[in-house]
Amino acid sequence: MTIGNRVAILREKFAQSIGLPFAEILTESEIEQALEDEGMTYRKRLFCPIVTLWAWISQVLDKDKSCKNALSRLISYLVASGQPVPSTDTSGYCKARKRLPERLLLRFVRKTGKQSHEQPQPEWLWCGRRVAVFDGSSMTMADTSKNQAKYPQPKSQAKGCGFPAGRIVCGFSLATGAVLDAVISPLSVGEVNLFRQLYVHLQASDVALGDRIFGTFADICLLFARGVDSAFRVHGARKTDFRKGKRLARWDHIVEWVKPKQCPRGLKKKLFDPLPERILLREVRFHIPIKGFRTEDVTLVTTLLDPKVYTRIDLAELYRLRWHAEIDLKHLKTTMQMEHLPSKTPEMVRKDFYVHLLAYNLIHTVQLEASRQHQVDPLALSFCATIQHLSNFACLLAHATEEQRTYEYTQLIYLVSTEKLPFRPNRVEPRAVKRRPKAYPRLTKPRKQLRRQLMNDRYFPRAVA
Questions:
Q1: In the chain, fewer beta carbons within 10 Å around the N or the C end?
Q2: CA 391/CA 2 separation, integer angstroms
Q3: pLDDT at 295
């Protein structure tokens, strides 16, 4: 059997299993076109770009994220089709992952996120508007010299005792939870500067939602110039006086913000200079009387000025929904184990990051399909259960006939629709761990130095007085 036929078998198996939810969003023809646009050419080999991409997505969805496990899955597909067992050496697969262009993976993340964001059900929208919610976090990676050079560890950690760390900022669709765009950088780059790289991709009539760090005069103006409204928590350093401005209701007024005298750090002066000298904004304050909540009073600033269309209660509910970004990041970092990436070079760290986002959007595509067919809220479905069902059904779908595949995929969608999360409003849990850790000391010196010390103590024991 030629390499071409074996590749065709693998492409078919992946398209019928893990790629099935993406059938209309990310077709093989669109992947081929994207490869052509990126100028990527490849020879006939087992790990062609399409096979490598689907294998990588299935790899990050699995609990065992090793390349050996991903290769084993490929081999099982070939053996099930009567093909001879190929080499179990993972070097070919690892080299194929390196050949995938970074821009190609980010392009697929944006495409799948945009498709999900632009086609939600009307009842999932907030006041008839699409909302993109932004939040930032951090992640670590393999402790190699290349990663340390690009993403240096925090200065508070001793050399050789920490991990390279990167800062990430993601934009999520509030209606569906899908990732619209994301960026990764060293910790020295602030979240606001990363945020500015993301909101340029928002569509007119969208609403940008975020925490207090994003609500600067310049960013609100730049968003508004693109036809994007915004709602951010007012920064703690800014004083809000509800006795001034046009009073709309109690703790609700329209006030004039004045342009800062100096250009903010990280913003290009050519973008800052044309900004208006003054802008009318609406400030709203609401009280949170729920016991256990850390914040009691929240003040929002927004360009949504009409109090009849966007009431004070609507804005309070919108900011409450901002918490979904925290949940989405938790799914990425904890459920999908993206908090630490084992990649050994900065390029592979970024690629692995984007593949995790693409796999995350795949799960939300399954949830979105279940929501449409069975009239349930996509954000009320269990993310973890969806991964479990999709992973377990992937093997069945890969080897099923066309008739069986239709039935099995229908049952998969139904099962996902039944995995509703319990309704637990205002849930409060302590940030504490019950299971005690092992009584090992912390690593305070580089591992090589401690290993050398252990060897010396073993073969040259210290004299006992």
A1: C
A2: 29
A3: 62
List, for residues 63-73, the tens digit of each pLDDT value: 999 999 999 99
Long-range pairs, 374-381, Cβ under 8 A, ≥24 = 374/413, 374/414, 374/417, 376/417, 376/420, 377/124, 378/124, 378/175, 378/176, 378/177, 379/175, 379/176, 379/177, 379/324, 380/420, 380/421, 381/416, 381/417, 381/419, 381/420, 381/421
Return the axis-axis angle of helices 217-225 and 191-198, rounded to nearest 10°.
0
Mean pLDDT throughout 246-258?
A: 95
Burial 348-364 (b: 16+ CB within 10 A, else e): bbbbbbbbbbbbbbbbb
| Mean of pLDDT over the chain | 90
Does the structure show a pLDDT above 50 at 455? yes
| Average confidence (pLDDT) over 28-50 | 82
- What's the per-residue H, E or C state across the chain? CCHHHHHHHHHHHHHHCCCHHHCCCCCHHHHHHHHHHCCCCCCCCCCCHHHHHHHHHHHHHCCCCCHHHHHHHHHHHHHHCCCCCCCCCCHHHHHHHHHCCHHHHHHHHHHHHHHHHHCCCHHHCECCECEEEEEEEEEEECCCHHHHHHCCCCCCCCCCCCCCEEEEEEEEECCCCCEEEEEEEECCCCHHHHHHHHHHHCCCCCEEEECHHHCCHHHHHHHHHCCCEEEEECCCCCCCCCCCCEEEECCEEEEEEECCCCCCCCCCHHHHCCCCCEEEEEEEEEECCCCCCCCCEEEEEECCCCCCCCCHHHHHHHHHHCHHHHHHHHHHHHHCCCCEECCCCHHHHHHHHHHHHHHHHHHHHHHHHHHHHHCCCHHHECHHHHHHHHHHHHHHHHHCCHHHHHHHHHHHHHHHHHCECCCCCCCCCCCCCCCCCCCCCCCCCCHHHHHHHHHHHHHCCCCCC
d(CA 339, CA 137): 10
pLDDT digits (tens, 9 = 90+) for 105-140: 999 999 999 998 987 788 889 999 999 999 999 999
pLDDT digits (tens, 9 = 90+) for 287-305: 877 665 666 789 999 999 9
Helix axes 102-118, 346-374, angle to 10 degrees: 20
CA nearest to 198, candidates 174, 175, 214, 176: 214
Q: Tell me, what's the pLDDT at 465?
A: 46
Given this model, what pLDDT does residue 423 score? 81
